[in-house]
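Troubleshooting log. The previous run stalled partway through. Resubmitting the same two chains, unchanged.
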Amino acid sequence: MSIFFDLYAYWVSILLMLAGLYIVIDHTNLFKKLIGVNIFQTSVFIFFISMGKVDGGTAPILEEGYRVFSNPLPHVLILTAIVVSIATTAVGLALVVNINQRFKSIDEQEIEKLELEEE
Amino acid sequence: MLAITAIAIIVMRNILSVIMLGGIYSLVSATLFVALDAVDVAFTEAAVGAGISTVLFLSAFAVTGQHYALERKNHNVAIIAVLTTGAALVYSISDMPVFGDPAAPIHNHVAPRYIEQSAEEIGIPNIVTSVLASYRGFDTLGEVTVVFTALVAVLLLLGVNRGSRKDKP
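Second attempt completed without errors. Output:
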């Protein structure tokens, strides 16, 4: 049983990663695919942050009376990753808006049909 | 909580409620980051993930404006892919160090130096800030480059289209 309780945070991130992957593959609506990508990214963030956690540690801000800090390095990496993720989301949404103007649809299957009809 | 929100997003079919749930999901994950001692990450996630990202989704939704129910078609492919990935991840999880273990390899390399020396070397109480802006300043430069590239890409995608629309009266 210890593998469940000792590694609890990692199980959460695996579950979220699989949920995100499922949404990306299963749903044909492009908006929902992008939300799936976001969930997938957040699961990676949670994985990194939970690796940096130290038992009994506090947030890594130097203050008298505190000796044990969580690892600041994953926090920095994830700060960068969050900003990059919003940038990729913005590009994705711009693509969706563009696709909608071209095909009047944001559903993958409808777009495929329309493309076949054009040929 | 997070898992429940994610599953709700899978099940929901109305796009608008999916977008709202996406915002809630970001906010819940921000509280989780606070619980894991990552306060800087938490407020970035709350501001960027729950705030800006939801606004972007909503404005794109307003431009495209389609309300019909979502269809799900690729069930079998999705389930096979998810199960394969899940099996690989669960197999590898047993190699991970115990959650919260101070002796885990991640805490033994550069992290102690950041914690012990950054007060003298940089002089800022927030270690995350001194690592972000000083020790790993080039990473931040790269991040700014990525954001700039994304901005250029968005402007190209939306701006070029506006020009072509003028051509077709």
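Takeaways: DSSP finds five helices and no strands in chain A. The longest helix of chain A spans residues 72-103.
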